[in-house]
Design brief:
mainly alpha; 5 helices
Length: about 110
């Protein structure tokens, strides 16, 4: 039942994301922070977050209204933090262990910025 609810919620947001791409950013943030797929065991391995991100990027590309990057103190600190983690990944003692976490972080930072 939880699986169906999570899937119906994601499928219901896709048309809204296509019409209003900013809703995709909100849906992606909600899905990333709340992680409802971890409570739904049947859709745990399905990359629903990637589906939301792909539809959002496609909607932005289709409408041509890309959001403007505002350079402020928070965005500069986030970019500096990303560069710091890139450097720490390069000098990691066990790069094979930290690579999946680094990959997830870079994807999250890309979509957040």
């Amino acid at each position: 039942m939880r699986d169906a609810l999570v899937l119906l919620t994601i499928l219901a947001t896709i048309p809204v994301i296509v019409r209003y791409p900013f809703a995709g950013l909100i849906a992606w943030a909600w899905f990333t922070i709340m992680t409802p797929h971890q409570l739904a065991y049947g859709v745990y391995g399905v990359p629903l977050n990637a589906i939301i991100a792909g539809v959002t990027l496609g909607a932005y590309a289709f409408t041509g209204s890309w959001p403007k990057l505002r350079i402020g103190s928070i965005s500069v600190l986030a970019i500096l933090f990303a560069f710091w983690l890139i450097i720490s990944q390069l000098f990691s003692l066990d790069p094979d262990h930290s690579a999946p976490y680094f990959d997830r972080f870079i994807k999250t930072m890309f979509f957040a910025v």
